Prior knowledge:
Elements lengths: L1 H4 L5 E4 L4 H13 L6 E4 L3 H9 L11 E4 L2 E4 H10 L16 H13 L1 H5 L18
Parallel strand pairs: 1-2
Antiparallel strand pairs: 1-3, 3-4
Amino acid sequence: MTELAHHERPIIVFDAMCILCSANAAFVLKHDRAGRFLLASMQGDVGASLYQRFGIDPTNPETLIVVLGDRVLRDSDAVLFIWTGLARPWNSLALFRIVPRWIRDPVYRWIARHRYKLFGKRQSCWIPAPEQALRIL
């Protein structure tokens, strides 16, 4: 865990059973041309331990997180941080930062709570393409 706590690249922890979440993970891998982000699913040991480290139940999380060393971003702040790190034109989505957090976060949390109902749930965890495997923890 110490190695992960001081990892130099941001780690996105997501729900690999959620169709929306895994589609987002694939999108990040495709549009993060600089290879800035690493990903970990909450169903795996690394992702579950990171959720627990930041006080989130890995069996029932209602947010994805971005781990930055000893800090964590969650909810809409995490999404905005991810968008900022993507290649153009996708990084322009970070302009949503102008929407106040008190509006962004309730919308994010509502979608997160209803993600399986709205987008569906996989029968098994999403598996990245072999060439992307080095970016998955």
